[in-house]
Amino acid sequence: MSRQFDSIETSTFSRDVKRKKECKNDSTIIQREILHFSPSQSIMAAFVGRICGSGLLNSKSGVTLQKVQQFSTSRPWTRSQKLATAAGITVGGAAALLYALEQSVSASGTEVHAPELPWSHKGVFNSLDHASVRRGYEVYKQVCAACHSMRFIAYRNLVGVSHTEAEAKAEAAEITVRDGPDDTGNYFDRPGKLSDYFPSPYPNEEAARAANNGAYPPDLSYIALARHGGEDYLFALLTGYCDAPAGIVLRDGQYYNPYFPGGAISMAQALFNESAEYTDGTPASAAQLAKDVSTFLVWSADPCHDERKRMGIKSLGIFLVLGSLVYYLKRHKWAALKTRKIAFYPKQK
User: Fold this and answer.
1) Quick one: which of 263, 223, 222 has its CA closest to 240?
2) Considering only CA atoms, which of 126, 135, 125 is closest in space to residue 295?
3) Using CB atoms within 10 A of its CB, is residue 298 exposed (0-12), middle (13-18) or buried (19+)?
4) Which residues touch 34 (CB under 8 Å, ≥6 apart)?
5) CB of 211 within 8 A of CB of 202?
6) How confident is the model at residue 76 (pLDDT cuts 50, 70, 90)?
7) Do residues 193 and 215 touch, judged by C-beta distance below 8 A?
8) How far apart are CA 25 and CA 47, in angstroms?
9) 255-256 and 264-265 as β-strands: parallel, antiparallel, unpaired?
10) Counting beta carbons within 10 angstroms of the beta carbon of residue 306, is it exposed (0 to 12), middle (13 to 18) or buried (19 or more)?
11) Rounded to an integer, what distance in angstroms lies between the CA atom of residue 137 and that of residue 292?
12) pLDDT at 146 over 90
């Protein structure tokens, strides 16, 4: 038995030696023929020679092929892959169905969609018209503040935007704030300060509903972001009052506005020509009033509008400089690798 194993091992060893010699001879022949090849053919021949020299074509190549086949895409899918694919298709189909339903509901609504207007602050690098913000505050103060609150805006927010510090203090001093308790435990009234917020016209929601036939006037602090269409919707709503068409029945205290969902709105038309007065002498037409108060409400909903765009411009400049520097360094580092020439020199006997 030992002699049989020795003979088997000897034959196996002789076959391996013979294969290695054949690969070596093949690589030698390839090296000799490279002299007659083009550069690309020379590289390919050298690569084949390395494969023969590394022993990938010997009897052990079956293990390597098995490892390669593990990454093949022709194998049947596993249970987890099938479940993940089915879940992805289901979620994608449900999202597409919800989007289609949302679009169909929006298209079937009775309200008119506000047209898109060319606002001066719409551009990526455009800031708010601060003169218009100041006039919009005057419109809010003289017209809108009678029903709507802005409880998230303080008088200090006006400083540097539409008013100077002295002007903002004068505006705050016009209101009376209930404060306290004092040292004796009593509450007292005092003039407003910069830290005070815009006053509410009603003490609570019930009083607001009782004064407006059950309708609650919304707070205007973030109304530009809370309504689809933003300032376009606000401008269209303020200027879009008209007579109700035939078939539309309005209850007492309701008015028709095609831009309001349902058409029936409890807020009467508030802006007319000369319904407010500007301190800078701008003609107070209804369209001008609506435009200015809409701009003011855009600022109140996003007080960092201008600062955000200013930081965006600065960041864009920084990224441009850094990107140019990185591109130069990349070209500098990779130039030697991308412009090099690979040559093969066969060994001399």
Assistant:
1) 263
2) 135
3) buried
4) 41, 42, 45, 46, 344, 346
5) yes
6) confident
7) no
8) 15
9) antiparallel
10) middle
11) 8
12) yes
